């Protein structure tokens, strides 16, 4: 069973460098000891892309996403070199969505203008909160004023689409302060807003001091989410995924690729790929990654978690990713992909969640309600059998 097959491909490039590691972050990223590693890492990325050139020659790249870390910590000339390498090694559509993440403290109009000339047409800016105390609690290195300068710089550089990241459930936050942050951001009129729930992950600084953090309780977190969804939709930002809201036609095409089980190639340490019906990632160690690319004939040395996605694993993956979308699961599409009836497999569980307002019938299938989205991990774990859960790869958390 092949989950994709439309001839399109996404490219993700991981830039693991940061000026400062945020206390809540569990992504593979670090503060470099010097700039000499920038050139080595860029060269490794470009070499790795060249290695995949023939394998991807029949695909057209229609989305590119450069994430981190903080991509804009890398000198802009090297970011442009990476963008040029993507175009050199892959067939990139003239209408491709090309996104780069930016921290407000590390980007300006000059940088954005140069990136735009190299094809970037979408920027994702990490604000997280418009409240000074909350930013400090998150150990963010920028102020609200610096964020606004960064946002306006992207506009002045004629970036076509801007996304802003916010968080809820963070230390010191209240329902009212979250809504003030949303009010502030929506008045700037970005095309897209992501709203993520803070999760305390093992290995982060927050995990070490969890007992000292002033965190909202679960009922308050739900009130935050419910009121935020409502406010965003009143302001013209339609929810299309658990954590994502957009003006009409401005949903992230690259992220939709993940949730629709479409192909993408990831480059860099800890980057994930779904290609030729297999899912895999690369080592979470930059030195091992660079050295592995230098000896690319031994690609297995940097590849981890290689798994063919078929059978029950394919079903579970389709369900766990597809149910993140507001449109939910299509019964017809499920049958076309897997040759079996979704309702016969999972119907008994669905009726309970529909009855209690956690799911809704869409006419084409089923989808989570906002209440269901808030507890989606629990619902999906309950719907999927033990065998299904062991078959699927880990997916992003809310």
Short description:
With 398 residues, the protein is an alpha/beta fold. The chain is built from 16 helices and 15 strands.
Task: Describe what this molecule looks like in 3D.
It is a single chain. By secondary structure, this protein is α/β, with parallel strands linked by helices. It contains 16 helices and 15 strands. It has helices at 36-51, 76-89, 109-117, 132-137, 144-156, 175-188, 205-208, 218-234, 253-259, 286-294, 311-322, 331-338, 342-355, 370-374, 376-383, 386-391, and strands at residues 8-15, 60-68, 91-102, 122-128, 161-168, 192-197, 238-241, 244-246, 264-267, 272-275, 278-282, 303-308, 329-330, 359-361, 365-368. The strands form three sheets. A nine-stranded mixed β-sheet has the order 7-8-6-5-4-3-2-1-9, with helices on both faces. Helix 1 (36-51) crosses helix 10, helix 3 packs parallel to helix 5 (144-156) and helix 6 (175-188) packs parallel to helix 8. It is globular. Residues 1-5 and 386-398 have low confidence and may be disordered.
